[in-house]
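To make the argument concrete, we let one protein speak, a sequence paired with a row of structure tokens, as a model reads it:
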Amino acid sequence: MENKEIQEEMFRAMFRLKHLNMSGMLKDISIGEYKILEMCSGCPAFDDGEDGASVSGMAAQMRVSAPAVSRLLKGMEGKDYIVRQVDAKDRRNTRVFITETGRAKQEECCEIFQNYTKRVFGRMGEDNMLQLLNLFNQMLGVMEDELKKTEKGDRIC
């Protein structure tokens, strides 16, 4: 296969991976909502009076705007997955806490994804998965390095 053909095939595969519709496996929750539950699940519970997850922090992790996260949170409050509270230390900020209903949904989704991954890994085989992971991480390292060069003014085009 020619170098250009390999490049095109790689980008086609990356496009397919990015556009896998994982939300079809979930019931009554979007992938974005699931990501928020995942981010909140490691935070201390609301009842403890501890810090929850910040809206701005979630937006940064998800690479979306804070208003986009706020829209998701509004729907999640209606489903009783999360509660929002004004930050006691800085009233300009909002903290987000997972509820028991949200924790149950997060655990259900996590189990669905674990079972899916287990089936995929089973079909691929451990050796193939380890080789793929190794090569993928190696490629990502090179790609990140090349992007840094480009960001520093080493423009090709």
In short: The longest strand covers residues 82-86. Residues 45-49 have pLDDT under 50 and may be disordered. The CA atoms of residues 27 and 109 lie 9 Å apart.
